[in-house]
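seq as requested:
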Amino acid sequence: MTEQTRQHTNEQREIRIGKLDQIRALGYEPFGQAFNWDHSSTQVIENADALEQSGEHVRLAGRLMIIRDHGKTAFATLRDARGDIQLYFRQDTLTDREWQLFHLLDRGDIIGVDGIVFRTHTGEITVRVESYTILTKALRPLPDKWHGLTDKEQRYRMRYVDLIMNPEVRRTFETRTRMLAAIRKYYTERGFLEVETPVLQPLYGGANARPFITHLNALDMTMYLRIAPELYLKRLLVGGIDRNFEITRNFRNEGMDTKHNPEFTAIETYQAYGDIEDAIRQTEE
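struct tokens:
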């Protein structure tokens, strides 16, 4: 981040902090309000025709990503956990307080809206807001709406901002979760028991790597962050848990590059075969 960008960010933050008193003066609390939503953006879009015909009210909550003020009307883009949807605000639909509050909102603020679904003259599915609630005032501005967050190092260091600005990143998180769920299902269906072994170890082992070292004050002893769970998993075999696995974090104090992190997720599994025919069948499956 350049010095000029940092200064601009600080100025924007001061402006947003100054709006807090104005919001409270209108009778709104800008943080911690409850809001019960009943639709996601995707559900509204997928059922737009039926919702438009029925005139059913929908309630959504999300972050304001774009605000386009046209005087007595305004459009905004709301982003929730599933996607984006357009909002339409009208001065003559909202209360005076709500309209005043609208002009204190910024990109990044989180709101909950209640309204009905319609299509604009260009055919875009939109929610006409009939009332709304401010849920969280964002005190730091988001990256530029046109250029977004593109610096690779900044994206990795500020993953939470990357998730806001680049929705496709969320799909990576979702894919990873589905992969882990499938792995767990595969093992448990075959009689494996998922276990947790110690992260802090008095003696590290299971791989040839340098550990992170820490100190346990209660026992006044040196401890190591594990470099692998192998030895503990093998002890479980000795104890009679003949099929086990662990999805866990390992730590190796050996630098980093584009393919190696000092902290990473690993999967280890062990099986002590009691029946060779069973072992062959499991391998074939």
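The radius of gyration is 27 Å.
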